[in-house]
Amino acid sequence: MIEMLPVRGLPEVVQGDDLGTLIAEATELRDGDVVVVAQKIVSKAEGAVVRLPPGTDVAATRRRLAGEQSLRTVVDAPWALVVQTRHGLVCANAGIDASNTPEGTLVLLPDDPDASARRLRSRLRERTGADVAVVVSDTFGRPWRTGQTDVAIGVAGLPPIRDERGGVDRQGRRLEVTEVAVADEVSAAADLVRRKADGVPVVVVRGLAFEIDDAASSSALIRDAALDLFPRGRGMLGPALVEAADRGPAWSQPVTRSDLDRAVAAVDTWSGLPRGLRLAHLEGPAPTTIRVLGAGLRRRGVVAGVLTAVLVDLGYRARVRTTWRHVQVEAGR
Amino acid sequence: MIEMLPVRGLPEVVQGDDLGTLIAEATELRDGDVVVVAQKIVSKAEGAVVRLPPGTDVAATRRRLAGEQSLRTVVDAPWALVVQTRHGLVCANAGIDASNTPEGTLVLLPDDPDASARRLRSRLRERTGADVAVVVSDTFGRPWRTGQTDVAIGVAGLPPIRDERGGVDRQGRRLEVTEVAVADEVSAAADLVRRKADGVPVVVVRGLAFEIDDAASSSALIRDAALDLFPRGRGMLGPALVEAADRGPAWSQPVTRSDLDRAVAAVDTWSGLPRGLRLAHLEGPAPTTIRVLGAGLRRRGVVAGVLTAVLVDLGYRARVRTTWRHVQVEAGR
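Output (structure tokens, whole complex):
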């Protein structure tokens, strides 16, 4: 059995507060408990708060700060700016929050949520003697599904992923894809015992089976960019093209054969030209050159333009090169 | 306090089993419990199982079935086929599972998981007298984050979303975006008390505060396509272009001014032509026509091709039209 215990009676947290002591005084912790702490009180205690002059446009300021605090823009829609933060987290407005904050302030994410979790874990041990794990949680939206759930943005002591890939199922066959995002599930579970408005920013999850891991880091929850199938949302092809052009022609890897076949098949079908494309590889490993033959000059240009976009969407840099004889696309990584 | 209680001692479920009776006999239910049932045993009980002849290529068959059972392909990568199922769920392989299934079989999603949940809820009431909610859960991967979490694919009795948007925060300001995906959080929480290999497909979540809702449906968890910022993953622009071309020119809405400005700015920057694009609207509301002026014929074609791709990425249908005088892109919805 697992229990989720809301920690009640915490005061409104302000900069400089000793969260560990406040939590230790408000609850009885045991070895193996997971203490789930809402990001907002961690940020407030650490002073990750921006004070806005009176009359500031809060939404515009938040959008500007989110842009400044991000590695890249994932979606820029009128109603949502989704970025990847410097922590690696993909979330709306870089996690900058304007609810449950003092009037005229914005609350940023903690500078290093894993370090925050480690400090808190260590402090809780000092104060209570209990060897607990700590999860710093935040509320994220999701693609395809409505509603938010809480996820883990910082962990200490708790292995964030339970890797069951080496295991076997009950028929004795290898489990194919089973890496359970335990720290995210703990965060979601903790969110069930509170509402945003009710002031319960700390929940103890008791009874979870796990081995304490002093080296745990939430970075294990962030997908490697090369394996990420959703690097961009709707409407971000334009910026991706600009970025791909900016990075210049210093390619070291050619387009893979399967991606090349795929891109050419799509553009051939789209263009409706029965023999719209031919391929010619330059000598050497990169870039891959696709020469466009057939039809008139404009039509060749159109096909080259679309092929460039399709290759950028596949994750390559690509550019159109024209000579007096040829229209061709060069692409690579 | 909320408790998660694993239900132990259930037999291996086969087609025709009365799940409600099995669960009722294995646990003591109370009014207000949420019974979280793994999709796989619901599918098995309902016979949503495909038996494969000996020697069948399981991975290839699964991929083919997933394609047949989907509304659209979201990503088609060598290692993952992500589709939107006819239920509206976006998931790998249309949720078709090859682990913890009898040798030589594939387990499909239930035909109507909400109906499955409703039948189970009703049966549990008959057998135990308790008014419980039922959630059918399944394990999904996520963009940007590693590891899977369980989500709700069917609900009965439990409102899947807790809408706090009308509420106020502790400073008395309106909560801006707070729709909590309670049914997903319940599913994630239930997953914490089991491992895939240990045969605990049912978990009781006790102590959750909610009002029984007889009209609840998991469809509330599925984001409206028009608001979905992640309709496609990497590499799906080619198919989107083909689809946009296939749908023909029957546009009823023009490109919005902001999208038009955005697309033109991106392509102008990309093309590096100082005066690469000019706009001319045809009379009437749709389609929007963007005429490409400047540079040579090939270059105009390239710009028109890229602009077409950028508009498709923004969710429009688009096509290139050329006359002896002009290269232009027509786009709309």
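The mean pLDDT of chain B is 90.
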